[in-house]
Design brief:
Helix content: under 10%
CATH architecture: Sandwich
Number of domains: 1
Order of helices and strands: EEEEEEEE
Radius of gyration: 13 Å
Number of strands: 8
Length: 104
């Protein structure tokens, strides 16, 4: 099974934050279209779980997010599921922390 890399950028507006990024194949760096990306809030974050599909260029975006911590993962048929910040296939990913006063 091939692996891929999940990268994310964080930007914040006055009221809510945006998490956007790209899903790419690990060995070639090619963008992965139609990958399923899941943003799950850590307990205590006032948000609900959100799903998105990557574009033909492997990009995704989650808008209007309240402050808190989130776990981001991506999956696609033929590839191993990966979490943002995951170093090895058996390790867990890192949460993305969104603060109200974050700057882009």
């Amino acid at each position: 099974m091939r692996g891929y890399v999940l990268s994310a950028l964080l930007s914040a507006g006055v009221q809510a934050a945006v998490i956007l990024g790209t899903v790419v194949e690990n060995q070639t760096g090619s963008a992965l279209a139609r990958a399923s990306v899941v943003l799950e809030p850590v307990p205590g974050t006032p948000a609900s779980k959100q799903n998105a599909r990557t574009s033909r260029y492997g990009t995704f975006e989650f808008k209007a997010l309240p402050a808190g911590a989130y776990l981001l993962s991506a999956s696609r048929a033929g590839f191993a599921t990966a979490q943002y910040g995951q170093k090895q296939w058996r390790s867990s990913g890192l949460p993305i922390v969104v603060a109200e006063d974050d700057s882009p």
